[in-house]
Amino acid sequence: MATLKRAGERSVLPELLAAVLESRGATVTKRGSVWEAALPAELTNGLGTDRVRLVAAPAGRAARGAEMDAALTERILLLGRSHGEVTRLVARVAWPKGAPESERHWVRLHWRIRYGSDDLPEELVAQHLPVGPSRGMRVPLESAFRGPTTDEAGALHPPDPELLAAAWMRALRQLEARIRYRLRPHEDRMRRELHREMRALSIHFRSLIAEERSGRRRRMESREAGRILQLKEDWERKLAAVIRQRVLDTEAKLVAAAFLTVLPEARGSKAVVRT
Amino acid sequence: MTREGHRVRSMGFRVGDRVVHRSFGEGLIVEVRERDGFEVLEIAFADGIRRLTSLYPLEPARGAGRATSAPAVSAASAAAPFRFGLDFPTRGQFRIAPGADELFQRLLVGPYDAPLEHEIRLRVERFSLHRGFDRLLCIDRLRDVQKYEHQVQACTRVLQRLRGRALLADEVGLGKTIEAGLVLKEYLLRGLVQRALILVPASLVEQWDQELRRKFDLEFAILKHGTPWWEEPLLLASMDTAKLLRHRDKVAAASFDLVIVDEAHRLKNQKTLAWKFLDRLAPRYLLLLTATPVQNDLHELYNLVQLLRPGLLGTYRTFGREFMRRGDRRMPQNTGRLATLLGETMIRTTRASTSIRFPKREVTNVHFDLTPAEREIYDGVTRLVRRLSHGGRDAKRGAIKLTLLTLQKEIGSSSFAAVPTLGKLLAREAPGPARTDLEELLQKARAIDVNAKFEGIVRVLKSSREKVVLFTQFRATLEFLARSIRSMGVRTSVFHGALSLREKEAAIAQFRDRSRVLVSTEAGGEGRNLQFCHLLVNYDLPWNPMRIEQRIGRLHRLGQTHDVHVLNFTARNTVESYVLEIVHEKINLFRSVIGDLDMVLGPFAEAGSFDDAVFNIWANARGDRDIEREFGKLGAALHVGRKRYEAVEELDKRLLDGVGDGDS
Lengths: 275, 664
Known about the structure:
heterodimer; A: alpha+beta; 4-stranded mixed beta sheet; 3-stranded antiparallel beta sheet; B: globular
């Protein structure tokens, strides 16, 4: 029962919650669209109940099942988030002819990005980066990776710190470029709007402002000039504040990382693909 | 620094970039423009704004700037020995949450988690990106809106429990418009609504437009014949215009995701075109706004709910059998069950259930006697208006009536306001007795330099130190008032329709911070926040009570903490004095807030029709007795409307208060 549907398919909340509970040692049974989980003592203490009944919400409801106990749902989801940050996965694939049969490495990083603007929804970005030269080989499909067997685990090489550091650097650069690309239209729009307002203001009252700044008040409306200058400076402060806020607000959080090792397929065997 | 002909040397600086100058320190570019072939930058440094050319040695500030104005990573930092972790020279575009360092170390040496744990974690992360409605995104994006707990709760409940189909039936003055705006904005931000339609009574189109623009930063197109309005994703229309034969198919074909209907009690009858039209629209989300969902018959409530949740209250007949007392259409039975069912689609907040203090309105009418010169002109204009409106030139009468109506209003405001219209009439009048009269009136009007009513303003300003908003309908009166008050040494701001948006903002800000008096016409004033002031003077009175209500509403609204004092200035034996007598002294219209003035005004609710009725009485009268009789009839009609409104309000209070109390 424990296996979840593969990535790309839509997760159903009860199914996900059942998988979380099962991975923590609960016994889960499924009947139709109802999952029942009998919890071990450790979970019983944490969640405050020894049995959880998970019912699929009627079609059309939002992703969070309204009928469920929202607090319990949150606690189970938190349980699912509390482990599995870093893992090591291997894949055996057919090796290109003539290529040296040494293992190759990639790193897979999952960043959760919360942008400073609500116009851009939060997103989960996955990066695949080669650790060291990839020598033309592409990272295999996600479905090709699995946990290493005991024999493999003993034989796998540890990551090279220098190469991993370089990959890390590339990852951050890519991330920065992505964030800048996503934010640019919004920043530009904001700048344009503020700039337009300031320009209108300063063009309209240019001579008055010049007089005010130079200390020559030849006109009767000198008080008016002071007011306009004040307004303009208010806008400038606002512009600075908005830009500073935007700069600080975007946050990238590394939520999960995997070190991927690709090994040459053993002769006479097929690639191992998890289903 | 060299000059290269007229070609601008652009260094790629833009407004908003932060730069460092070796003498002035760090600054913010606030303006970039060309002068004499150079790019001139205005930079706000700590000690003030300086103007420099972009050829001056400037460096992008650390932690700011754009990709083009600096290398992505400085050479020094890139060459620095990389220690494991996040010693990454980001330039302020983002920050990295703590914990990434630790994960990097674990990637190097472990311990590693089981692959299944890893997969579950990723699945949970992906799942949690489906954001629920627990946190409202729109809250931080509103401008100039004082949010109240009941409004946020109502919005959350509409989004979560009622799934976007709700009857918002809060009592008058609790901000149904804000609640609907919150729901609309939230759906738009989340991408759940792409096309939205708002249907309102014709008299409220402008007010809605301004509120949406100012408070929610939403640009709605207004449905106008001859424009390609059906292409607009956000459309505001009066119900009467939208349901016209030439529009209704296009509106229905536009398939709006969200429809909001204000004053929705007008959809009380299933047989009306409006009800059928809305039923045909069948939007995914529907909000009906009314403080009085039931007026005469419980079936009206059934009809409204039928639009939102068909079948919730059963069929028309079973609803009658189960929930209405036999022989009385207004009395419910099984009220507990009815309230439970209504709770599934209706939200009603009462004033008693909130902790908001609602300030009182104190209305005082101040009557003046016109000076002999003013009286002479007023009577002269009245005689002229009566003569010209009954003149033999039938073909032109329609056109001239509007001018005469305006003239009569202007002379009620001040002699200054009447001068331009008298001049216009004179210009097109052929020689004859009317022309002679006009010349004489114009001459006399120009000779007057002070108004009797202005004495009242002097008394008000001398008797208290409070801020005052002075309303008038006409620019000429506004200018006279501003000039005269300034000459008294009182700081005065002016607000009228000819000001640009920025000047209007500046006028309000100036009034808030520095001036004591704001002289304003109504134009564009709705929705502007004047709650910091508590004293309002109507220097002249619009004939239509709705306009007076809108004036008072600018001060007396949710968020006003003091009682609001309203002074109505009128001269005796003028049209305004009669209007005031019927709408205020007989019907007491302005002492309390009335949700739907249209209901009180009845047949006079159409734009201009109340003004027309008043003008017709005045222009057709043969003497004072005629005037008193006709104004008495008008007052009686309004009295009936007021009683009807009070009865409806009482009925709704009895029926609906308590609906939804048990819900979260």
